[in-house]
Amino acid sequence: MAVLDSFYFFKADTANFSGASHLDLIPGTNIDDNLLKTGLQDVADNMKLKDFYTVALWNYCSGTKDNETHDLTFDYCGKPQASYWFNPLQVWGLNETGGAGLAGEFPKQVKAAMKTYQTVARWMFVAYVAAFVTTVVEFIVGIFAVLSRWGSFVTTIISCASSILILLASITSTALYAALAGSFNSALKSFGIHGSLGRPMLSATWLAVAFSWGAGLFWLFSTCCCSGKSNTKRVKVEKAPYTYERVASPYLGQSGNHEGVKLQDMGQHREGKKGGEAYEPFRHASA
Predict the structure, then answer these.
(1) What whole-number distance in Å separates Cα of residue 167 and Cα of residue 40?
(2) Comparing C-alpha atoms, which of 50, 46, 34, 41 is closest to residue 101?
(3) How does pLDDT run across 197-239, given as a tens digit for each residue?
């Protein structure tokens, strides 16, 4: 079985299906016996009942099961549908059993329960799609908001919406299919039909919740503490240019604006210098 085949919310195992003598799921009527015992038996006899059925977000798949290795082999998957809900009466062909179908004989409370299940499944689908869309928008906006405090603020709002949606969708899917698995196990146990939850799918959706809320906290932190700009002031130090200015010759007296050094003072200038130093005819002057 491929890895992706294990990602489903609910699985109905019908490999060990067998008829039952009597059911009392709906007190005071024989609709449970007629519909479930007779109907399912007819479906099984006509080889329409598969060994298992898995329910995902937008379709269901069915196939055969190896009784020794318990490996599942998928041989059919329905077309993806928006707001999909698993209708066992339609999937198992019970609407066609008994002429006009036995589904019309259901009491009002049973029909109301199936209608509620359909409504909740539709809301769950919308929540998952909306969470996926907002997550993609969050990723795109976040790329351009790394160095901007206002960009981080906008991304935080989108991330919060995405986190709330994925949380609500995960709560709904877990509660919905846990209730469906419990109903299958209580109502169809005598037929050898067993319902179970898809742990890999539920683990993935709750892991998505954790990552989504983690991303929201990251963007909130970046909004409060990271502006994207450095507050350190840069001090620009300019080096003062220096030029060499020619010193007037002491032998030529005054030249231009420079005052020359008299010959009689040359000895005093030389005595102030250390021995062995040559006379420097240039001096530094700031431009």
Answers:
(1) 37
(2) 34
(3) 999 999 999 999 999 999 888 888 877 776 555 455 555 555 5
